[in-house]
Amino acid sequence: MEETARAxxxxxxxxxxxxxxxxxDGIPSSVQESxxxxxxxxxxxxxxxxxxxxxxxxxxxxxxxLYEGVPPIERGSDFPMLPDRIVLYYETLTDAxxxxxxxxxxxxxxxxxxxxHHFGFDDRHLRGRGY
Length: 131
Hints:
Zincin-like, alpha/beta, 6 helices, four-stranded mixed beta sheet
């Protein structure tokens, strides 16, 4: 799991990383096999460029995670095998969820949401399923 520079928060980076690991461990092994080429990255917050590309303004709670890649069902045979990435935003998540119980739930929900994008589901479909 890759990380960017440290930020100050009510929860340590190592504890946050442990919550992400717990969420990953809770994913069925059949799904885990399908995401071996997906890198899970923790960054402090989305960049202005990322927010702009998604049509979002910089505000608290604006973006918890991001899938960067091409879903396998949309790839051709000549697609390069660079890993896809799921980015989880430490500051955004910890600013919006001020206790570990709610943060743990949101980390899991966000991770599943971004994995849904990896499998080709759009936001409307994922939100309709509670993710």
